[in-house]
């Protein structure tokens, strides 16, 4: 694949992410807490805005410390659900770093 094969919007997003990460310390010596902080800073521009949900709930899965967030785009009683497990090795990303993306999916696809 060459640069010409990459969509212009995707290339712009990649360039912005590359510039944002370049302003941060190298990942190699960073602790997990520092990695989370850096990724939250870099992803901040992509968490703002997006669709407004009629309701958002947070719950824990069973007796585990795993939090889930459910986005309801409208008042429909029964909605199909998307279960999205984000990347980051359960270390650097969070519900917050992916919140807008999940609201975009919920709003556009009319899913919870």
Automatic annotation (TrEMBL):
Q: Which GO terms describe its molecular function?
A: hydrolase activity
Q: Which domain of life is it from?
A: Eukaryota
Cite a single Pfam family from the UniProt record. Abhydrolase_3
Q: Tell me the ranges covered by the Alpha/beta hydrolase fold-3 domain, including all copies.
A: 82-110
* Database matches in InterPro entries: AB_hydrolase_3, AB_hydrolase_fold, Lipase_GDXG_HIS_AS
Q: Which PROSITE patterns match?
A: LIPASE_GDXG_HIS
What are the record keywords, sorted? Answer: Hydrolase
Q: Can you tell me which residues the record assigns to a coiled coil?
A: none
Q: Which family does it belong to?
A: Belongs to the 'GDXG' lipolytic enzyme family.
Protein name, as recorded: Alpha/beta hydrolase fold-3 domain-containing protein
> Which species is the source of this protein?
Adineta steineri
